[in-house]
C-alpha cells in the first residue's frame, strides 16, 4: 500500500495502562488486567471503560492496521483495534473467545453498545490483522488471518468532524493471566472503496 508506515509502540499513548508491557523484538507483549473491558449498558446493564488501548491520532482518510496472535482460550479474551472519540462513542473490532471458539466481531457504541460476531475457529493461534479505514462519515472494518484475503467485518458511522484515536486493544473480562502478542501497528491511506 502507498504511504504505509509502521507506528512505533512508543509513539502511542495508553488509555488504561495494562498490568504489564514487554518488548520482544519487534513485538509487544501486553498483559491485561482481570476484569478489563469496554462495554456500555446494552443487555448486561453495566458500563466498562477500562480495557487497555494503545492509541494514536486517527484522522479522516487514514487507515490503522494492528496485528496480533489470536491465542485465546478463556471466555471473552479479546484483542484487536479500538477507535475512540470519547467514553460514549467508540468502536472495537477484533477476535474474542466466546461460545467455545474465536469469534471475529465488532462492537459499535453510540451511547449504548451493540455487538456482532462470526466464528473463525481456524484462526485460533494464528496471526490476525485488523484494519480500520476512515473515510467521509464512515469506518470500514476489515480483517484477515496471515496472508489470506481481507474479509469485510463492519461498516459503521463516524462523524467526519470527530477527533478520534485508534490502536491496539486487549481485554480480559473474566480472568487474570491473559498476555497478547501484538506483531504490528501501522498507518496507511484509507481504502479507496467499500468493495
Please characterize this protein's 3D structure.
This protein is mainly β and 195 residues long. The protein has strands at residues 5-6, 13-15, 20-24, 27-31, 38-40, 47-49, 52-57, 62-69, 78-86, 89-98, 101-110, 112-113, 116-119, 127-135, 138-145, 151-157, 165-171, 179-189. The protein has one domain (5-189): Jelly Rolls, CATH 2.60.120.200. It contains no helices and 18 strands. The strands form three sheets. Strands 1, 3, 4, 8, 14, 15, 16 and 18 form an eight-stranded antiparallel β-sheet that branches.
Distance between the termini: 16 Å
CATH fold category name: Jelly Rolls
Total domains:
1
Number of helices: 0
Tell me the overall shape.
globular
CATH class descriptor: Mainly Beta
> What portion of the residues fall into strands of 2 or more residues?
over 45%
The unreliable regions are none
User: SSE order in H/E notation?
Assistant: EEEEEEEEEEEEEEEEEE
The helix content, as a percent range, equals under 10%
The chain-level structural class is mainly beta
C-alpha-based Rg, rounded? 15 Å
What CATH architecture would you give? Sandwich
Average pLDDT over all residues: 96
Q: What is the makeup of the main sheet?
A: 8 strands, antiparallel
Total number of strands:
18
